[in-house]
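Hello forum,

I keep getting stuck at the same step: I have a sequence, I want structure tokens, and every attempt I make locally crashes halfway through. Rather than fight my setup again tonight, could one of you with a working pipeline run this one for me? It's a single chain of 201 residues.
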Amino acid sequence: MAVEIAGLDVETLKSEIKKTYARVSAEPERDFIFPTGRGWAQALGYPPELEEVPEGAVESFAGLSNPWQLGRLAPSEHVLDVGSGSGTDSLIAAQMVGPEGRVVGVDMTTKMLEKARAAAEELGVSNVEFVEGEAERLPFEAESFDVVISNGVIDLIPDKDAVYAEIFRVLKPGGRIQIGDVTIQRPVSEESKGNIDLWTG
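Reply #2:
Ran it on my machine without issues. Output:
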């Protein structure tokens, strides 16, 4: 059963999120309410593989934290990046798992997917692909991935139970998650939950 929040139209919210991140893709130099770009990823302590990621991807990096602080990936692992955006984390993962590994980035923003695919081609990696989809309905078979990574995406989705159910569905037994995101320290009012501007930043 999907989560319903009074006053929140989930389809409108998704549309606004797509618009926001399409702008991050098209106008990476613009000032957003959240930090973006290579300098921000470096400030978060991103791993050395960041240096190899093409500027076309990193300029639109909009992660909120550093999921790599939870550990590196092993060669040959199969990895899913939920909310892959412009592809920065997916391309880092592709370097870590090597040619025997596989990385799939899933995102619902077409412009970000186009940017990620172009960056993968520029980097010359063939072990990564980018797929259009939503975190609440991942288009993958059960037990497909060793690791699921995500950075700054789950906080945008009202139905977090559905997202985590899907993550656990696609993980292989013994798989792991590496998520960077925001948390809240105090309850959010019902009025604020229905405010799309507060969801999209």
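The chain has eight helices and five strands. If your local run keeps crashing, start a new thread with the error log.
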